[in-house]
Amino acid sequence: MAFTNEQIERYSRHIILKEVGAKGQKKLLNAKVLIIGAGGLGAPAAMYLAAAGIGTIGIADADEVDLSNLQRQIIHQTKDVGKPKVESARETMEAMNPDVKVITYHEFITSENILDIIKDYDFIIDGTDNFPAKFLINDACVMAKKPFSHAGIIRFQGQLMTYVPDKSPCYRCVFKEPPPKDAVPTCKQAGVIGAMGGVIGSLQAMETVKYILGVGELLTGYLLTYDALKMQFRKVKLPSDTHKCAVCGNNPTITKLIDYEQAECDGVGL
Amino acid sequence: MNITVAGVKKEVRDGITVAQLIIDEKVETPEYVTVTVNDEFLENTQFEETVLSEGDNIEFLYFMGGGQ
Q1: Interface residue A238 vs chain B (CB under 8 A)
Q2: Cα–Cα dist A73/A209, whole Å
Q3: Distance from CA of B50 to the nearest CA of A (A)
Q4: What confidence tens digit (pLDDT) does each residue in A100-132 have?
Q5: Interhelix angle for A42-52 vs A85-96, to 10°?
Q6: pLDDT of A134-154, one tens digit each?
Q7: N or C: which end of chain A has fewer CB within 10 A?
Q8: Residues of A in contact with B38 (CB under 8 A)
Q9: Which domains, from first to last, does chain B contain?
Q10: Spatial separation of the C-alpha atoms in residues A240 and A242, rounded to whole Å
Q11: What is the pTM of this model?
């Protein structure tokens, strides 16, 4: 595949980087990334990945755009209120970069459909707003041996970690099971500063690009935490001994996907 | 004695347990926090009985569910 003149110009700031080059840009154009959740995290992640020329971007979300989303979900605009988020996200990405093929999944991810959805992708981004979905994505990625980026945001805080099969602890190594409904505050109850999605979602896009290029050190074996009020990032080392994990350990007790009860941010799911 | 809690060095009384440290540090939703001591996970059933030592490194990892 040869670049067009337009592509050489479009991706010139990538191609000039020694870590990317023409070879790396081709990797990006050939890559397939799935973003689950077209919200606070998924919006900036999707926009940076589309701009970067990720050739195939899948986006899954069952919701429609709500006015209360627009404070942070920058892929959607006021005119999009009421439209399926995946459609609005697709329009924005396609308008940004015609090189990107967008595949939409206007549905909730469940134990029934997730393995089929993730199977064709190279990397998955968890941009969901609820623990049942976060555990489902983790378990499915462990079982299907797919790398993914986990993230969570609330108030002025955010966190993320990267999972690479057989190389790093998974989300369930750190958090064994979802907290009971309403035990831990959600964004809807507690609020979230809009730019937090921008910071953490962009970091998820950064991890995705690094994974595809095969450069640098991924956030595997660490949980990165961000406190915006203190303006402090911390890279917390995770224990490397994960053999006891119920899903990625040596003797997993979770061998089937679980649909936990939903307790989400916006009251309508993903 | 001196320990490190979430990256910050601090002085605590000798013989303090993880359970007491969780109270002193005003950990939010303590029943759902994940604790590591010197880069090892600590089961929450062991918080009461685990006595910290000079130089220990403690991290509290919190559920963060938002994203939309």
Answers
A1: yes
A2: 21
A3: 18
A4: 999 999 999 999 999 999 999 999 999 999 999
A5: 30
A6: 999 999 999 999 999 999 999
A7: N
A8: none
A9: 2-61 (3.10.20.30)
A10: 6
A11: 0.95
Distance CA A258, CA A264 (A): 17
> In the predicted model, what is the mean pLDDT of chain A?
94
User: For tokens 């920058």, what's the residue?
Assistant: A74
How far B14 CA sits from the closest chain A CA (Å)? Answer: 25
Question: How far away is chain B from the Cα of A249, in angstroms, using its nearest Cα?
Answer: 14
Q: How far apart are CA B41 and CA A223, in angstroms?
A: 14
Task: Give the pairing of strands B34-37 and A222-227.
Answer: unpaired
| Mean pLDDT of each 10-residue bin along chain A, 270 residues long | 94 98 98 97 98 98 96 97 98 98 97 98 96 97 98 96 96 94 78 96 98 98 98 96 91 95 49
Give the position of tokens 């979802």. Answer: A178
Q: How many CB atoms lie within 10 A of CB A61?
A: 29
Between CA A232 and CA A242 the distance in angstroms is: 28
On the CB side of A18, CA atoms within 13 Å amount to: 1
The CATH T-level fold of domain A31-237 is Rossmann fold (3.40.50)
Q: Is the pLDDT of residue B61 over 70?
A: yes
Taken in order A163, A92, A82, A154, is the CA torsion positive or negative? positive
Q: Is there a contact between A114 and A228 (Cβ–Cβ < 8 Å)?
A: no
* A39 contact residues in B (CB cutoff 8 A): 67-68
